[in-house]
């Protein structure tokens, strides 16, 4: 069985004036992943300051919330694949949908030992399906959503109001598909 290790989230340096990713700076900070293989996840990271005041102290905490936007795989290297022109264009489109305060970030999921491409492809399929639960406009290689949905769980029309379905909530709990508390 292939075991994968997660690395990230790594903020991708981004020039907001020129709307350009600073890929050289990214790889200078995270060079040890340049020649690795596996899955990578582009995400939009939202930072939120939360303060709590008690009788004796004031505490400021920064919470991060990541919205997955694209998942890719590479059998050559992250260095040649992650910031290809096609991927940079795709991720620029995702950033244009979000406020400028949201930062681009990247996760790497790397197999510990073997280079089993079948396992990496299966992992990508799983991650895409999980990503669609939290982001209905989640993109895959073709930028298309599947033609099926499970009402109240996955690929439901985000513009359509839907009443809570008891069975859907039970299935979510059983399958471990519950979302974390709302980030709002």
Concise overview:
This protein is α+β, with helices and mostly antiparallel strands. Helix content is 28%, strand content 29%.
Which spans have pLDDT < 50 for at least 5 consecutive residues?
Answer: none
Instruction: Give a short account of the largest sheet.
Output: 4 strands, antiparallel
Please give the number of β-strands: 6
Strand portion = 25-35%
Helix content: 25-40%
- Count, helices: 5
Cα gyration radius (Å): 18 Å
Overall tally of domains: 1
Could you characterize the architecture of this molecule?
The longest helix has 18 residues, at 117-134. The chain has helices spanning 23-29, 78-81, 85-96, 117-134, 166-175; strands at 4-11, 14-15, 20-21, 38-53, 58-74, 103-111. It is 28% helix and 29% strand. The protein has one domain (4-145).
Secondary-structure map:
Layout: E1 4-11, E2 14-15, E3 20-21, H1 23-29, E4 38-53, E5 58-74, H2 78-81, H3 85-96, E6 103-111, H4 117-134, H5 166-175
Antiparallel strand pairs: 1-6, 2-3, 4-5, 4-6
Give the key terms.
alpha+beta, four-stranded antiparallel β-sheet, 28% helix, globular, 184 residues, two-stranded antiparallel ribbon, 29% strand
């Amino acid at each position: 069985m292939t075991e994968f290790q997660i690395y990230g989230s790594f903020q991708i340096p981004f020039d907001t004036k020129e709307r350009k990713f600073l890929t050289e700076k990214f790889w200078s900070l995270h060079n040890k992943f340049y020649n690795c293989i596996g899955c990578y996840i582009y995400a939009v990271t939202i930072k939120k300051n939360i303060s709590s005041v008690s009788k004796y102290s004031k505490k400021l905490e920064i919470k991060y919330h990541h919205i997955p936007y694209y998942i890719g795989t590479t059998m050559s290297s992250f260095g040649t694949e992650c910031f290809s022109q096609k991927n940079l264009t795709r991720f620029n489109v995702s950033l244009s949908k979000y406020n400028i305060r949201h930062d681009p970030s990247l996760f790497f999921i790397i197999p510990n030992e073997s280079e089993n491409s079948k396992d990496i492809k299966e992992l990508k399929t799983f991650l895409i399906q999980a990503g669609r639960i939290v982001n209905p406009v989640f993109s895959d290689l073709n930028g298309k959503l599947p033609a099926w949905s499970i009402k109240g769980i996955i690929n439901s029309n985000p513009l359509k109001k839907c009443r809570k379905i008891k069975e859907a909530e039970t299935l979510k709990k059983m399958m471990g598909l519950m979302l974390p508390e709302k980030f709002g």
